[in-house]
Specification:
Elements lengths: L1 E7 L5 H11 L5 E5 L12 H4 L12 H12 L4 E7 L4 E9 L4 E5 L7 H6 L2 E5 L3 H15 L4 H20 L8 E3 L6 H28 L1
Parallel strand pairs: 1-5, 1-6, 2-5, 6-7
Antiparallel strand pairs: 3-4
Helix pairs in contact: 1-7, 5-6
């Protein structure tokens, strides 16, 4: 199993990179674990207070659960991945069954900030993009998908997203094995990454074949 961590700022194009990797490989070879699925449950907090939660700091993530479920996948076990609603800021009752795969991608803004998770990653990727481009994408996404007004998004960007990016996300870039500038539009970097993944999978397949022959 090849475990890849893909981090980067909000709106940097991480999802685009993940989708292009999935599209380049045979169906069923990639399992994705979004960091966003592992936000701590906030159902015990009054609804009026949930909007004030800082989702852009490491303390908002239940890292222990993410790491445990990643270990289970490495052991060949299926997991029930949690789901999270941005509309209610609570963990949902529904789960998503994730089966072990040749490639597991852990994707999210803070993926490279946790040392335990980082130690489990075979390849660490940081998707980089200009702050202006990221802000435009965040405004478009949050207004359409999360029902927020442009002013709310801009205020949150200034008060939370930008400070947390500077404090946690940008510094985690130093742990990356590969930095993808220009976000998901950098086809050269994405092709290099997918070529590397395919070569690792082929090498792994040859080792398995050789071991079977030796037996």
């Amino acid at each position: 199993m090849l475990i890849i961590g893909i981090a980067g700022g909000t709106g940097s194009g991480k999802t685009t990179v993940v989708n292009k990797i999935i599209a380049s490989l045979p169906a069923g070879e990639v399992a994705v674990m979004p960091q966003d699925s592992y936000y701590k449950d906030s159902s015990h907090i009054p609804p009026a207070e949930r909007s004030k939660i800082n989702f852009d700091e490491p303390a908002a993530i239940e890292w222990s659960l993410l790491v445990e479920q990643l270990k289970q996948l490495k052991e060949g076990k299926s997991i029930e991945m949690p789901t999270y609603s941005y509309l209610t800021c609570t963990r949902q009752a529904e789960t998503v069954t994730v089966k072990p795969a040749d490639v597991v991608i852990v994707e999210g803004i803070l993926v490279l900030t946790d040392p335990v998770l980082r130690s489990m990653l075979d390849v660490k990727v940081f998707v980089d993009a200009d702050a202006d481009d990221r802000l435009i994408r965040v405004i478009a996404r949050d207004c359409i998908e999360r029902g927020r007004t442009p002013q709310i998004v801009i205020d949150r960007y200034a008060d939370v997203l930008k400070p947390m990016h500077c404090q946690y996300i940008e510094p985690s870039k130093r742990y990356a094995d590969l930095i993808v500038p220009q976000g998901g539009s950098n086809t050269v970097a994405i092709n290099l990454l997918t070529d590397y993944i395919e070569s690792r999978l082929r090498r792994g397949g040859r080792r398995d074949d050789e071991s079977c022959q030796a037996e």
